Amino acid sequence: MKSTSSALVHALDLGTGPARVVVKDSIDIAGYPTRAGCAALAETPPATRHAAIVERTLAAGYRLVGKANLHELAFGMSGLNAWTGTPENPRFPALIPGGSSSGSAAAVAAGLAEIGIGTDTGGSIRVPAACCGVYGLKPSFGRLDRRGVMPAHSSLDCVGPLSADLDTLIAFMAAVDPTFSASADNTPPSLCALAVSADPAIRGAVAACLESAGLDSTTCPLPLMDEAYAAAMVLINRETYLACRPWLDSGRLGADVERRLRAAAEITDAEVHEAEAVRRAFAASVDRLLEGHTVLALPTLPHFPLTLAAAEAGQQDLTISALVRPFNLSGHPALSLPLAPDHGRPVSLQLVGRRGDDAGVCRAARYLLARSAATPSIKGDAYV
């Protein structure tokens, strides 16, 4: 088994099935503390019961092999963690692993597990999936039970899987959610390519993927994307501050997280009210566009990830979530698929579907994967 530095914070051996799973350490596993990568939680007692997603995973016959590392308090996009260590990006070691589910993405990219369970409040599954060159699904909001997940309350957060193989990810969703069925379907998906701002090389790779799959697609604007990003930032800041303020004066928070929490304390009720209005308008805008299309297609990341050296020197990049965070606000399912790298840098395509049609998003991804010359074949930790 190949290892990757700091991807896991606990080794486990729970369950008897052959398929291995790592679980983000913001999710309760009975008998183990949930520390969320934060020194302020170092003395947290072990959880007394499994989170709902852990119960379902074990009942479905999977084997838990580790608790995965993360960006502290799941409140950052780089995946760096000065307390628990930063997971190495196995396929792109000079770059950040992405956050906040950095350990889950790194573990599946390195072959430590077939499935990584992460959480996605503002891109925290899809960003590390894109950075590490694996698949990552943010389900429709509320699809997978969040009981036992930190923070206890969120209007944005979703539990979801990451995997190095799309069919493995789909099989996991079907195993833990009996309402999910992505049976084989060769019907071409109706696709709308969103006109968004992104690095030309990334836009070109996404366009090439869609073109080589032979799909007829239209290019459409999606109103309120920028406003939805800003509104989602307001809400994640307010909700994370309310959940984490007991530790703000502990002296045991990382500098980046402490700065963000102190800034989040300044969010006003008026800003929250305005963000909720944007949520309703943007969700309706996405729904309207999906009335005539199976999925929306756009890059997962607007630009290439930071180098690890730049991030360790203190550079921040929350805008890496500019194309993913809006769909946390709207609640639509979104899947990140790796494409062929560009000069040693990861590129990913994001597909967004109708609320509740997570399986339709996965079927569209399977269709593209089977027909597009721009989607790589991944063996172990290498693209071929």
TrEMBL record:
SUPFAM superfamilies found in the cross-reference section: Amidase signature (AS) enzymes
Species in which this protein is naturally found: Salinicola endophyticus
Family the entry assigns: Belongs to the amidase family.
Protein name as catalogued: Amidase
Coiled coil: none
Record-linked Pfam families: Amidase
Record InterPro entries: Amidase, Amidase_CS, Amidase_dom, AS_sf
Superkingdom classification of source: Bacteria
Annotated ranges, domain Amidase: 21-186, 254-362
Stretches that traverse the bilayer: none
Higher taxonomy: Bacteria, Pseudomonadati, Pseudomonadota, Gammaproteobacteria, Oceanospirillales
PANTHER family: GLUTAMYL-TRNA(GLN) AMIDOTRANSFERASE SUBUNIT A, MITOCHONDRIAL, TRANSAMIDASE
